[in-house]
Amino acid sequence: MKILVTGAAGFIGMGTALRLLARGDEVVGLDNLNDYYEVSLKESRLQRLLPLPGFRFVRLDVADRAGVERLFAGERFDRVIHLAAQAGVRYSLQNPHAYVDSNLVGFVNVLEGCRHNQVQHLVYASSSSVYGGNTRMPFSEHDSVDHPVSLYAATKKANELMAHTYSHLYGLPTTGLRFFTVYGPWGRPDMALFLFTRAILEGRPIDVFNHGKMQRDFTYVDDIVEGVIRVMDRTAIADAAYLPDEADPATSNVPYRVFNIGNHQPVPLLDFIAAIENALGRTAEKRLLPMQDGDVPATYADTALLDDWVGFAPATPIQEGVSRFVAWYRDYYRV
């Protein structure tokens, strides 16, 4: 198949493109290489893809309506994996317009490209952040997600609503994946694992929010990639058992699906830090701080629907995943 992977210079995008190329698909990778974090890391990821047969790179912002229209019309993709987005809960408090441009305008541009060019299936990145103020654990796709606590979360909820609209109006099969705290080699420098590892190696204290009373369903990047590709290969279909008067948020009577993709094993933040310390052979100096605005104390994915749909659920242990990241970090930065 010919597949568009947006956000191809991101670490989930790079991993997804590598897997698709390895199995013989043709991949067009799109990215705008913005400077939200160090561009050199994005360029290094891209250098892993550029020499591979079947890969082509297009530097383009998904918010560029005319550019996206030309790309879709010229390429005629079979399927689309949309991972490009302005990420980060905390940054959304400082620069909300970046989230509107990328996550809302960009998403409708991708939807329009799929609609007008006979794309067979759109798989897109949602986020565990859509669960917002929910306190019932584990988070289930059957639960309401109408109380976001950050603009980032609101844009991801909006993506799910927009996708459903296109599935309803135009019969476009769409599947949203709610990622739960993705980590691993080539990961994002703005996320906890990267920040903690860098600070500990440089002898600086680490910021531990909510005084360490946090839990996250950390999900290893290879598990995320496996889930993305399995879901892409099984096109969303209307649920014959859907009852409109009950309006289950997890499904629909149109070709629309949404799934959690998490490790189903929430890890206390202090245990996560201990795994990093163990992998580094160093002890962190911890600066205990209050909860940040827009953050939540815990995430925990119910992955039963994903397992039922594609026969897969993430399961990489945190100690193994952290050790792989630390090994990559030491090699990449020659530490």
Task: Walk me through the topology.
Blueprint (H helix, E strand, L loop, with lengths): L1 E5 L4 H12 L3 E6 L7 H11 L5 E5 L5 H11 L3 E4 L8 H4 L1 H21 L4 E7 L23 H20 L3 E6 L2 E2 L8 H10 L4 E3 L6 E2 L2 E2 H13 L22 E6 L5 E2 H12 L5 E3 L15 H7 L7 H15 L3
Parallel strand pairs: 1-2, 1-4, 2-3, 4-5, 5-6, 6-11, 7-10, 8-13
Antiparallel strand pairs: 9-12
Helix pairs in contact: 1-2, 1-8, 3-5, 5-6, 7-9, 9-11
Arithmetic mean of pLDDT: 95
Report the structural category. alpha/beta
Characterize the largest beta sheet: strand count, sense, and whether it forms a barrel: 7 strands, parallel
Give the overall silhouette.
Answer: globular
**Radius of gyration, Cα only, in angstroms?**
19 Å
Largest sheet: spatial strand order:
3-2-1-4-5-6-11
**Count of DSSP E strands?**
13
SSE ordering: EHEHEHEHHEHEEHEEEHEEHEHH
- pLDDT below 50 for ≥5 consecutive residues: which ranges? none
